[in-house]
Design a protein that fits this description.
heterotrimer, B: 261 residues, alpha/beta, six-stranded mixed sheet, 12 strands, C: 300 residues, Rossmann fold, 13 strands
Chain lengths: 369, 261, 300
């Protein structure tokens, strides 16, 4: 009759140190959070020290701690590290965190572990915005694109994502209440429409534009500049800042919308905040890096298996793990076919899909899908 | 006191509740019975604020429509019929969701353990909710609701438990356990409104019974006055007899358990 | 070493290939000249360089249809456009009632070519190689198909002389100029030409050196590699009205901004079909490029 606890043995022999009551995974969660933070720092450093050229980690350290007299880094290496790799690492962290947290939020909101940020239309809209600029900048949109110059593409992607999400939100909200089920279905319809318009544009495109389209769709952190980092940062930081406030509400929402209300959670406000933050953060991420998949689904899922679904820890852990994983994927994409670059979307898919498969097969039956 | 006045509820074009008025007093267990489709659950959902309704529902004298959800949450806990969870929460994590105000971790764990003990689930804190049977899950939810409205009286104001078919998936021992919790809650000053299918447990534990039929209240009153052959036959459309002993088949009445001190 | 590149190379090639409409690789070898068309009164030419050759061989008046990449000579604007060479619609091509069709290697999609074959219109696919010899082969091949072998030989000889003269200009140059050909810069990512492309071929003929080594085709190049390879000159296509990357875009990429090429303002833009067409004007294009690359070092 008495239940057998699965959690009486904590990993790394911590059981002896901390006698946490059964069913309380917060100690383990905090430990994992600390571990992830340290991992991120290490991975970030490795990323800055790795690349297609020979600018080295040792040189970097000497540069920081040296007395400046000794030119520990050549001017070119300095350029590579400070102006090419560092903004790229910063951007990778922002994008990875944004995608992972957005995934976790959407899964919590839709109460489904298969949800990802694309479910509210951000990816489809952003993709359409990008295709419009790529294909039409030579003709109809010429003057407008010329006005924004190099920012035309990211801006269009961001606006596309936002417009799609807001449209879905309006469709799904009646009488001040948002039905996530309606949003889901409307999302399918709108995505199909986006696909049709994209198709027309693809038909109109020439070789070069098709190439641009394809590579944009596969995602890349190439061409990262400090400007892009500062442009994307506010949106990502916003979602990280609002996450703690959404955490408890999302846990309660797991019981169902009615029960969440009975517990006093302002469910409508929760939905609106979550949807808008995800639209902004994912929109910004896709705008600066193109289409990168898998992070939004795999990261929260892995973490749930490790530390449980309690959002107070899950959201922050997702941000940390998402950032680390994306940096690792980027390091691979930068070095595996040097001097060319493999689009990062390929790396996340090639590693993400089999790993995800393996995890699912091992833990079959643990999750209610 | 929870009071409903002239409550009407529609589902699309179809009307489900017709001008229902009912008052539940604190210190009493009010049970709602009736056949399937008579509107019992709909009424309870309206009381819980889950469905739109016309008419007035007051909670401790204040109109429900004018109360903020977090204020209502401190006064009233609702136990739904089924709760499915899509993520692997542990039993403890589910139960502690009922704790509205964050206090010390130790205090929280203590309350959760106590609530689990009350529903006869001691030692289940570490189990995964998704792996439990339907009856065990229902008891976990009850433990959560108990954590939410722990004390039946808060600063002189009665608190409420609204239970929508709380014992449908439980075995007889646990059915009695849950009904005793409800009666205990009421005896300490709180109010309980429960929807039940079991007529015997209703007779044993209810202080006040409302019988629903076709979206209206057919009759209301103490069990003794409501549970009569005529009323029951009429409402449930089968030839029930109160107090009759069957001739050749054995019968096991939960009330007999009740009588044993 | 080869194995390391195989999988990613295949991936990228198949992706690019998949996005583009599909390629056909004809079986005909370069020296396998086709039989002349029976009737050359109504020609359709698919491929800019082929159209130019057709005009040079005096059959411009017989052209009833041409594809969108055929932009020279100016007379082509009078001729019906029948679609994009890689995305032909068979009905469009057949709508001008052609008696013969000339296709440049790489036209497609295969389904459209298939339909045209089923329509029993005589077709000749002209192979393409990105070298001076390749241009001559193209001319001879087209000439044979049009039944103008002598004129073709004369044209080939002239073009060969042009190209040879142009290549000679830079034969004795001491230091080769390193050239980075940028196809596009969408989203700040640099799509640069490796080996095996038209751009690469032109750079080599003009006496320059492709700054990029290590991959084939047009691919996204790693930013830090750009600083390593330190190109002297950046070469791009000019499609008018700043459609391609503007100088501002080049400056915005820190790796490019730090190159000698950008610092010295050595950014060359040339018309796409002129530079990369590998047709009769190639000799002039090589000379042009060589002069822009080497300036005073080159005899005029």
């Amino acid at each position: 009759m008495s239940g057998v606890s699965r959690f009486s043995t904590l990993p790394f022999g911590l059981n002896a140190v901390v006698a946490a009551p059964e069913g309380d995974r917060s100690v383990r969660a905090r430990f994992v959070l600390a571990l992830l933070a340290v991992t991120l720092v290490v991975v970030a450093f490795i990323s800055v020290a790795t690349g297609a050229s020979e600018a080295s980690a040792l040189g970097l350290i000497r540069d920081w701690f040296g007395d400046g007299q000794d030119a520990a880094l050549s001017a070119r290496d300095r350029l590579i590290i400070y102006d090419i790799r560092m903004p790229r690492v910063a951007l990778g962290m922002l994008v990875g965190a944004a995608l992972a947290v957005s995934g976790a939020l959407m899964q919590g909101l839709f109460r489904n572990p298969l949800a990802d940020p694309g479910i509210i239309g951000v990816s489809a809209g952003a993709g359409l915005g990008a295709i419009v600029v790529i294909v039409l900048s030579g003709s109809i949109l010429g003057p407008m694109v010329a006005l924004f110059g190099i920012y035309a593409l990211p801006l269009a992607a961001f606006l596309g994502g936002l417009v799609m999400t807001l449209s879905l939100y309006r469709i799904g909200t009646r009488g001040g209440e948002t039905s996530v089920a309606t949003m889901l279905l409307a999302g399918i319809a709108l995505a199909a429409l986006c696909g049709a318009v994209s198709g027309i544009l693809i038909f109109m495109a020439d070789d070069r534009q098709l190439r641009d389209l394809t590579f944009w769709g596969l995602g890349s952190l190439g061409g990262a500049t400090w400007v892009k980092v500062t442009a994307a940062a506010p949106f990502v930081l916003v979602i990280l800042a609002t996450s703690p406030f959404l955490a408890r509400g999302l846990d309660a929402l797991a019981l169902g919308e009615a029960s969440a209300r009975h517990l006093g959670i302002p469910v409508q406000k929760l939905k609106t905040t979550a949807i808008l933050s995800v639209a902004a953060a994912t929109g910004a991420a896709v705008a600066v890096s193109g289409g990168i998949g898998f992070i939004g689904i795999v990261v929260p899922h892995l973490l749930r298996l490790l530390i449980g679904p309690t959002h107070r820890y899950l959201l922050l852990a997702s941000a940390l793990l998402g950032a680390s994983l994306l940096l690792l994927a980027d390091a691979i994409s930068r070095t595996i076919v040097a001097p060319a670059e493999l689009p990062i979307g390929i790396v996340t898919a090639v590693f993400g899909a089999p790993f995800f498969m393996w995890v699912l097969l091992r833990r079959r039956g643990l999750l209610d899908l | 006191m929870i009071s409903a006045q002239n409550v009407n509820v529609w589902a699309g074009r179809r009307q489900i509740l017709y001008d229902v008025s009912l008052t539940a007093q604190p210190g009493q267990v009010t049970v709602i019975i009736g056949p399937n489709g008579s509107g019992k659950s709909t009424f309870v959902k309206a009381l819980s604020g889950d469905l739109p309704y016309t008419g007035t529902v007051t909670l401790n004298g204040r109109d429900l429509k004018h109360l903020r959800p977090d204020a209502v949450a401190t006064m009233r806990g609702v136990l739904p019929q089924h709760t499915r969870i899509s993520f692997p929460y542990t039993v403890r994590e589910v139960v502690e969701l009922g704790l509205l105000h964050r206090s010390s971790t130790e205090g929280q764990h203590h309350m959760a353990d106590h609530a689990l003990a009350m529903v006869d689930l001691s030692g289940f804190a570490g189990r995964l909710y998704q792996e439990l049977s339907g009856g065990e899950q229902q008891r976990v939810q009850l433990a959560r609701v108990l954590c939410q409205v722990w004390a039946p009286m808060l600063e002189g104001t009665p608190r409420w438990l609204i239970l929508d078919e709380p014992i449908s998936s439980l075995d007889i021992r646990h059915q009695l356990l849950v009904m005793r919790i409800a009666r205990d809650f009421a005896s300490r000053g709180g109010g309980v409104i429960a929807v039940l299918h079991d007529l015997n447990l209703t007779a044993a534990f209810a202080d006040h019974v409302a019988v629903f039929r076709d979206g209206q209240i057919a009759t209301v009153g103490a069990p003794r006055s409501v549970m009569k052959d005529g009323v029951l036959c009429d409402v449930f459309q089968c030839a029930l007899r109160v107090g009759a002993v069957p001739a050749h088949v054995p019968f096991v009445l939960p009330q007999t358990v009740n009588e044993t001190p | 070493m080869r194995a390391r590149f195989l999988l990613p190379f295949l991936l990228t090639v198949s992706i690019t290939g998949g996005a583009l409409a599909g390629f056909i690789y004809p079986a005909a070898a370069a020296d396998d000249l086709p039989e002349p068309f029976a009737d050359t009164s109504r020609l359709v030419s698919v491929g800019g360089s082929l159209t130019e050759i057709v005009f040079e061989l005096g059959h411009g008046e017989n052209l009833m249809g041409r594809d969108t990449t055929s932009t020279f000579p100016p007379e082509v604007n009078e001729i019906t456009e029948v679609g994009y060479s890689r995305q032909l619609a068979p009905e469009g091509v057949l709508s001008v009632a052609p008696s013969a069709i000339l296709l440049l290697e790489g036209s497609g999609p295969p389904e459209a070519i298939d339909v045209l074959q089923k329509a029993h219109v005589p077709m000749v696919t002209v192979p393409e190689t990105f070298t001076g010899e390749g241009v001559l082969a193209k001319i001879r091949h087209t000439g044979a198909a049009l039944g103008e072998k002598e004129k073709a030989e004369a044209l080939a000889a002239k073009v060969a002389a042009d190209i040879e003269a142009a290549e000679k200009l830079t034969a004795d140059v001491a230091e080769r100029v390193k050239v980075l050909f940028i196809l596009s810069m969408q989203g700040g990512r640099v799509l640069a030409s490796g080996s095996g492309t038209a751009a690469n071929g032109m750079i080599e003929m003009a006496g320059g050196v492709n700054a990029v080594e290590g991959y084939q085709g047009y691919k996204q190049i790693s930013d830090e590699v750009i600083t390593q390879i330190a190109p002297d000159v950046i070469l791009m296509m000019d499609r008018g009205e700043d459609l391609d990357a503007t100088n501002a875009e080049l400056m915005a990429n820190p790796a490019l901004a730090a190159t000698r090429a950008v610092a010295n303002g050595r950014i060359i833009r040339m018309d796409g079909s002129y530079l990369l067409g590998f047709g009769p004007r190639t000799g002039a294009a090589v000379k042009d490029l060589a002069q822009q690359l080497y300036g005073d070092q080159v005899a005029r």
